[in-house]
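Let's practice the habit of predicting before peeking. Look at the sequence and jot down your guess about where helices and strands might fall. Then scroll down.
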Amino acid sequence: MYTNLSSQMKMKLITILLISIGLVACASNTGIVPMGRDTYMIAKQQGTGFPGLGSMKGEIITEAVQFCDKQGKEFQLTATKETQPPYVLGNYPRSEIEFMCLKAGDKELQRPRLQPVPNTIIQVK
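Done guessing? Here is the structure:
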């Protein structure tokens, strides 16, 4: 199949293939990470800046809801965080949520009142 290709063309194809695999391999998903009693987080990051945030947050919220459902508990979103453009030099699209899996009727199970997470905290001593 590739017998008519020059060795230079073969090297270009191999290089493109390796770069493509490397970019896909850079994408990451933490999976569900316990943070304390009934509290978890999950984050997902793209391997490049090209796809943008897209439906990433929806995907991780769906994964979290399914996780809580398997435990017979209710999903309660507590915090969200996303990277901001420009998506260059390692600042790739990333979405993260913190959530709780609570029993029906738990006093903490309520309408979410989300506040943005600050990227800088100043402490005065």
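How did you do? Confidence is low (pLDDT under 50) at residues 21-25.
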